[in-house]
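Appendix B.2, paired examples.
Example (i):
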Amino acid sequence: MIATPAWPPASTPRLYVETPLGEGVTLALEGAQANYLANVLRAKPGDPVRLFDDRSGEWLAEVRAAGRRSVMLAVTSRLSEREPVPDLWLLFAPIKKGRIDWLVEKATELGIARLQPVITARTIVDRLNLDRLRAHAIEAAEQCDRTALPTLHEPAKLTALLRDWDESRALLFADEQGGAPFAEVAMPGPAAILIGPEGGFTDDERVLIRAHPAARAITLGPRILRADTAAAAAIALWMGTVGDWR
């Protein structure tokens, strides 16, 4: 007996759209997404496309018409519900372009729920292009099969975040001067990982953070890690210890 080919094929393109999706919904893609489907992939009527909207899960659609500047899609069925997202935030000091793009991309792939830029005394980047960072998060979600996007927030000062912090959310502070092994302090429940700038936290900031009731200093091993590497390592440790990798 000849096996029935899997549908949709593994090669089916996958895109995030802001239009709320549902069976029978039709939508027109324009700009970069239309160019990708029509001119790069040479999509034609009847070809499948996987879509997600960060609300209702992932849906299967098919191309109804493909022009050079616009592609019309019709949603046919739901493939999966929106994923449950572990309640983990990443608080990070903005770093140089390129490295911060990588940080946002990998944090999204690893399953982070919220991305919160933090302004510290030694933060060297004072302006962030949040639209560009969101685009990197979307592209990462498209590639890794996420159906939920991380929320990306405006930068906030460290002092303001600590002042308004909900003590029910553990604040895992990656301290270059040392802390407890991750497995000893990570517990199920809402949590956030705090990663410092390229120059590290000042002594005053370190004292302020450690004095907070929700803060737990952690170590990420014997080597000094770049800020983006530290973020990825800490997220992976949390996901493997109390997150959804177990």
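Example (ii):
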Amino acid sequence: MTLTAGVVAVQGDVSEHADAVRRAGEACGRETEVVEVRTAGTVPDCDALLMPGGESTTISRLLWSEGIAEEIVDHVEAGKPVLATCAGLIVAAADAGDDRVRNLGAVDVTVERNAFGRQKDSFEAPLDVSGLDDPFPAVFIRAPVIADVGDDVEVLAEWDGRPVAVRDGPVVGTSFHPELTPDARLHDLALFEAMDGATHSEDREEPTPDR
């Protein structure tokens, strides 16, 4: 079955995410169709979504003005996977700590924008990510810090004692940019493995009650 992955394309690393999800699909033998989400009406046809980095206030404003924000919320409530990275995580969070960002509330975390420093402070770090066998080469560029996580949020990775990758239901959020490396394992973990797990859960037979 073909997986339709929508990349929110109002701003940010759109082509990089598209390439990464295609590589992830090839690696696990899944045919993938990538569509760009620029206006309302596209998200409902998507099996999975990617929310790239960029400028969080601009992304937030465009998502709500174009009617895309409500569709993303519905997508998450339907249990469909989302990978939100850097500014995408800021917008998806419950609280961005900035009144200029209208949050989606899709990830129960509080974030602090640019807390890892400015552009000149960018760095790459090998991260131990839950679900991956080997360290992931994470690229941090003006990255937010995940300052607080909700009770039901799973921390997937930390750097310098602070969460930098989390999972909240169908949503995986990262402070860093996984699309800026040739390593597509995080896209696989967040999207393909999540969908496969959901499918297996739905296909599992309910036990027959004793009579």
